[in-house]
């Protein structure tokens, strides 16, 4: 097939896959070669408008201001506009157009975490002291906006705004001029893409300004770079000193998420503005798309930022515990999964038969009557809709004054509590299903409520089913407050998305995990902690869970590393975080998977749990230049047009494909998939890697290999002698796997090991992942 026909066909396929109306208009993102602008047009915008008009047959009827929604000039070159699929396909073949992408709508995926990560000490820990707490770095938070008056964002004691900062502070409702300061140095909002699809926003429910009226953006921003605040708590839980990872780093808020979601065209506009403004780190807690990188707007925006020297940290998604659920998987992003800390909020269910079922909650009262046992009812006894406690599904007469058991799923956890509360129940137990496993998330419910795992939920349902009118099932909820020093910790959160990487299994994803379960951070004054309209309570901090909370932990740590090592590239910073991560918990066992209670693996935690203190001095780093990503994309068999859509570069892939395979990207992990068809006794591959000495001066490292089961791994050379700081040396890793005699068709077998380079002071660890895939018959 001719290459010039490939993109329009992919475009049509993508439109169908993403739910677009084949006959109507929708938003497309158009990537162009900036140098191709004809001289007849005075500006790029004039050229873009003309191109849209031509592709659309010269039609009019454009919204006020013309057909363009956004124009992009920093992270990428191009624009977004509303078009029909036929016009978009025509535009894809126009001169100077690199790619046409259908817009997708994305979703939004601390008092204890600094101490848990070993960063709170007196005197300050090395990573904080050596980086001056990140004081001259700017972290961009692309999210739901920010609450500027929060104590976490005060600027007392901070020096002047870095002179290289070029950003702006937009004003609007609830965000008057002067809302920014030396801490919150910039704030912008992007809604044109959202409104182009959904119509003009309802300004009685949404705020056309950078103000956060959701809470998510304020929460993530304070995790990354909130100031020290004491006292901090949520409804009396998790009392202590709240602090972000980089407490003196500057923040820039880019609001892209609205009631209808987070639209690609607005996200790209935020990336474009962040690059132009001069940020150092981008923190993105927004769900990705499972599409090739050249059709993924987040991957494209992140590449432009990375090329500009900006570290991009992104949430892995909350699709766990199922495999192949990880998102934001481009290798130029740091993809962050979620783990627990050594803190818990127990709220156990005590049954009338004497059983006690473990649960969690951060409900603040008033609690259930002490000593009283309440009748238990299972909402699903009547219908499926009632089982998940959907709005209007409960019989008030049947639940009034009782504790209602609801199943997880369909509507939000807080919304279930609201439904049960309005029905007149005394309390609620939220029970996991089999897919959710034993993973528990503590919520700020509007009534006495707790969450229990799948096994406890099954016991609870059976207990209720065995009751009779003469002997009803009874129970109560006992709220135990905050427990510290919990073992084991960390564990991989059940919701945290898992690998393997669905787009390029040669790069292990997620890259690592960070605290993301039950994280306390800043909260807007106008939003209730349950996050639902009926919640009239107000709190300065809130406890949330998600990879959205894990991502800004790494964003803040990346800012500290960049402040301490200003010459390090984004890839070097990621390498330092990955090769120093740990995989053992505080009980000295391999980290567990919360959903099953069993040992977790590399597709759950990647390289491991982030270790800030060790990342400060990793010894060696695996560096990657933008041109290396081009070779990687060549070896994924992307066309020149595909690669140009991502990188703005013309790619001649002949040399890259002769030189190796996609696994030869200089990544801090090594991953290979063999097709175990039984035709060969052995399966072999090799990886070429280059490490840079950042440990200072002369040093000698020796390789230690823990081979995956059934594999033989050798490293040549197995000794690296460095004469100076900054020197680069290369080595080759040979992997040989034995085919298994019997594997079910379509099944896979995963084995993991590790390569460690050590000099007696540093241990530079890279996971080795070997997957045997049986062909589908």
Automatic annotation (TrEMBL):
Residues spanning the signal sequence: 1-22
Annotated Peptidase S8/S53 domain residues: 134-597
Residue ranges occupied by any Subtilisin-like protease fibronectin type-III domain in the UniProt entry: 664-770
GO terms, molecular function: serine-type endopeptidase activity
Stretches assigned to the PA domain: 374-460
Record-level GO cellular component terms: extracellular region; membrane
Domain of life: Eukaryota
GO BP annotations listed: protein processing
Domain Inhibitor I9: 27-106
Record keywords: Glycoprotein, Hydrolase, Protease, Secreted, Serine protease, Signal
Active-site feature positions: 143 (charge relay system), 216 (charge relay system), 548 (charge relay system)
Cellular localisation: Secreted
Major place of residence: secreted
Family annotation (InterPro entries): PA_dom_sf, PA_domain, Peptidase_S8/S53_dom, Peptidase_S8/S53_dom_sf, Peptidase_S8_Asp-AS, Peptidase_S8_Ser-AS, Peptidase_S8_subtilisin-rel, Peptidases_S8_3
CDD domains reported in the protein's UniProt record: PA_subtilisin_like (cd02120), Peptidases_S8_3 (cd04852)
Family: Belongs to the peptidase S8 family.
Record-given protein name: Subtilisin-like protease
Gene: LOC123063046
């Amino acid at each position: 097939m001719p290459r010039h026909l490939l993109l329009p066909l992919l475009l049509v396929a993508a439109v169908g896959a993403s739910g677009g109306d084949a006959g109507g208009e929708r938003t497309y993102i158009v990537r162009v070669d900036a140098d191709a602008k004809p001289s007849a047009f005075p500006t790029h915008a004039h050229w873009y408008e003309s191109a849209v008009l031509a592709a659309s047959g010269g039609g009019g009827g454009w919204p006020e201001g013309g057909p363009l929604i956004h124009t992009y000039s920093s992270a990428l070159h191009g624009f977004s506009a509303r078009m029909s699929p036929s016009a978009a396909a025509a535009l894809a073949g126009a001169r100077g157009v690199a790619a046409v992408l259908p817009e997708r709508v994305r979703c939004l995926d601390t008092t204890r975490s600094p101490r848990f990560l070993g960063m709170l000490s007196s005197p300050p820990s090395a990573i904080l002291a050596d980086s001056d707490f990140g004081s001259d770095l700017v972290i961009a938070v692309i999210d739901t906006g920010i609450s500027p008056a929060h104590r976490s964002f005060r600027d007392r004691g901070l020096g002047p705004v870095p002179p290289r900062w070029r950003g702006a502070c937009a004003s609007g409702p609830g965000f008057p001029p002067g809302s920014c300061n030396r801490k919150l140095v910039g704030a912008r909002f992007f809604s044109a893409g959202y409104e182009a699809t959904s119509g003009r926003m309802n300004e009685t429910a949404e705020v056309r300004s950078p103000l956060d009226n959701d809470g998510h953006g304020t929460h993530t921003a304070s995790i990354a770079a909130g100031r020290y605040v004491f006292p901090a708590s949520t409804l009396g839980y998790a009392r202590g000193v709240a602090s972000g990872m980089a407490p003196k780093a500057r923040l820039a808020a880019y609001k892209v998420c609205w009631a209808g979601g987070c639209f690609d065209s607005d996200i790209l506009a935020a990336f474009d503005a962040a690059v132009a403004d001069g940020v150092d780190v981008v923190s993105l807690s927004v769900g990705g798309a499972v599409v090739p990188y050249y059709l993924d707007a987040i991957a494209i925006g992140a590449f432009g930022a990375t090329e500009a020297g900006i570290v991009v940290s992104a949430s892995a998604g909350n699709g766990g515990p199922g495999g192949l659920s990880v998102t934001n998987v481009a290798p130029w992003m740091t993809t962050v999964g979620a783990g627990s800390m050594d803190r818990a909020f127990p709220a156990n269910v005590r049954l009338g038969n004497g059983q006690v079922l473990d649960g969690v909650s951060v409900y603040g009262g008033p609690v259930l009557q002490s000593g009283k046992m309440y009748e238990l009812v299972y909402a699903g006894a009547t219908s499926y809709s009632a089982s998940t406690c959907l709005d209007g599904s409960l019989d008030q007469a049947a639940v009034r004054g009782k504790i209602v058991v609801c199943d997880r799923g369909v509507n939000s956890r807080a919304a279930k509590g609201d439904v049960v509360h309005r029905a007149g129940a005394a309390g609620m137990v939220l029970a996991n299903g089999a897919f959710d496993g034993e993973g528990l998330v503590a919520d700020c419910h509007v009534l006495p409520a707790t969450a229990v795992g799948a096994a406890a939920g099954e016991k609870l349902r059976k207990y209720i089913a065995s009751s009779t009118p003469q002997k009803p099932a009874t129970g109560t909820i006992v709220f135990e407050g905050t427990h510290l020093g919990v073992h084991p910790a960390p564990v991989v959160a059940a919701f945290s998305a898992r690998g393997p990487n669905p787009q390029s299994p040669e790069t292990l994803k997620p890259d690592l995990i960070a605290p993301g379960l039950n994280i306390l951070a800043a909260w807007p004054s106008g939003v209730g902690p349950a996050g639902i309209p009926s919640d009239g309570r107000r709190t300065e901090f809130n406890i949330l869970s998600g990879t959205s909370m894990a991502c800004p932990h790494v964003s803040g740590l990346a800012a500290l590393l960049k402040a301490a090592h200003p010459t390090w590239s984004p890839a070097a910073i990621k390498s330092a975080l990955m090769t120093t991560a740990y995989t053992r918990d505080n009980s000295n066992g391999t980290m567990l998977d919360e959903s099953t209670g069993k040992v977790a693996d590399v597709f759950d935690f990647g390289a491991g749990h982030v270790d800030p203190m060790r990342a400060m001095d990793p010894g060696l780093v695996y560096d990657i230049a933008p041109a290396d990503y081009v070779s990687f994309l060549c070896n994924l068999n992307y066309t020149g047009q595909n690669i140009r859509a991502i990188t703005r570069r013309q790619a001649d892939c002949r040399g890259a494909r002769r030189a190796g395979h996609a696994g030869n990207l200089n990544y801090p992990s090594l991953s290979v998939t063999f097709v175990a068809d039984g035709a060969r006794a052995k399966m072999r591959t090799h990886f070429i890697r280059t490490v840079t000495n950042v440990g200072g001066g002369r040093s000698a490292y020796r390789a230690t290999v823990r081979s995956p089961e059934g594999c033989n791994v050798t490293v040549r050379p197995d000794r690296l002698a460095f004469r100076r700081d900054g020197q680069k040396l290369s080595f080759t890793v040979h992997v040989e796997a034995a085919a298994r005699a019997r594997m079910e068709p379509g099944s896979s077998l995963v084995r993991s090991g590790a390569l460690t380079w050590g000099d007696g002071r540093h241990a530079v660890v890279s996971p080795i992942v070997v997957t045997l895939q049986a062909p589908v018959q």
